[in-house]
Amino acid sequence: SDGGKLLVVPMVGSHWLSMQKVVEKLAERGHEVVVLMPEVSWQMKTTQAYTVKTHPVSLTLEELDNAF
């Protein structure tokens, strides 16, 4: 099938760990994938498989650590 365009807005934490492989496979299959992720994150990393756009958040990484 032809690839389509996808916008992915993951939540911080384990949701992204599960979803990242799916997003990478979709990109490999020809989908144009844009992942919108917060500027501050523990596990969300960029990759060449998809485009990453960041958005500002009100927490620092230290505040995020303390919240959990």
UniProtKB/TrEMBL annotation:
Q: Which UniProt keywords apply?
A: Transferase
Write down the SUPFAM superfamilies for this protein, in alphabetical order: UDP-Glycosyltransferase/glycogen phosphorylase
Record's keyword annotation contains NAD = no
Q: Which Pfam families match?
A: UDPGT
Source organism:
Tricholaema leucomelas (pied barbet)
Q: Name one GO molecular function term.
A: UDP-glycosyltransferase activity
Q: What is this protein called?
A: UD18 glucuronosyltransferase
